[in-house]
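Entry 0007
Protein: Peptide ABC transporter permease
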Amino acid sequence: MTQALDSETVKPFKKRRNITLTIGLTLVGILIFAALFAPLLAPFDPNAQEMAVRLMPPSASHWLGTDGFGRDLLSRVIYGARPTLLLVSLILVLTIPVGMLIGISAGYLGGWSERVLMRITDIFLSLPNLVIALALVAMMGPGLMNGALALALTSWPPFARQARAETLALRRSDYLAAARMQGINGLRLMFGHILPLCLPTAVVRAALSLGGIILSAAGLGFLGMGIQPPTAEWGSMVAEGSKVIFDQWWVAAVPGGAILFASLAFNLTGDGLRDRLDTRNAD
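Output (structure tokens):
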């Protein structure tokens, strides 16, 4: 009887987590589709200026209106998905390997190696992400790669701390003891046996952190430190629209809505993945 009640209680939760993951992946798919097929989806050239129709409200010819240079906002929002996703991809490629390497090394080696690596991690965790990113971009110059490097520098510590905690839990497990009995040690044990077990949670953390990364990237663009005009980028578009936000609200609201859409998509995906990969929710 109790087992039947538990089963009935788990079913709504499983259904809800599947819906969350499905919605999140659908929204991410729409975002990727828009970025890949922007030339086919955009009704106008995103950089074409037409001063005769500047600051037009949404209409039949321009569905989301135009900006201060007469450029179609729908086209610019669609094209703006490209640098945003590229920047996010670069940051993940840089942060996940670095964070996993430091965290697994600290948890496996222990001793002074762990203390040194984790104190370095704590130093970077104490730094405010956007402020440090702004300082680095100011020194290196604005641009896609510089922005990615600056944000990646302060985005890896959470991955390192999580990988260290999981490695410490695994270090005395029967699974690793059996691997050692077969003569597996060192790098082969760390990256052949510990790394695969730490990857699922790293994927979940990456998905959950993407929303914040998108906001940070938009913040760099808003302050003029990101991808430079005339390239369509959501943060710089919001900055342009903020000058006329009280009279022509759509100029800032449209790219702001795109940022919200992207953040929501990745947050829902992260929530769904966390529930799906959590062993406590297994059947």
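Curator remark: The chain has one domain: 20-39+60-281. Confidence is low (pLDDT under 50) at residues 1-5.
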